Amino acid sequence: MAEGAQSGSLSGTASAALVANVNIEYANGFVQNEQFGITTANFTEIPSTIEANKKITIRSDIKPVSGNVVIQGANDMDQTPGGDRGFGSIRYDMLRITKGDVF
Prior knowledge:
The chain is mostly beta strands. It is about 0% helix and about 50% strand. Strands 4-1-6 form a three-stranded antiparallel β-sheet, with no helix packed on it.
């Protein structure tokens, strides 16, 4: 899950996008790349957060040795009087579920 809170001011409609790029490197040198995101178009009220979700399956036959997560956000709102426009509190959450977990 990738999530971010937008900052800016709104004098009509605006759009925003959030994109996450995840790279998982395995012991044999193979890199698994997963990219996902969300676009919210023509909103008239600033959403408190926007969120993008994707299920990523990590291979079980090769040991993962490293991972990298990059999240980018963009919006076309007006700047606030203080000059702010963009995203704050951008974060990601990962949940690992193994065989046999019951919910």
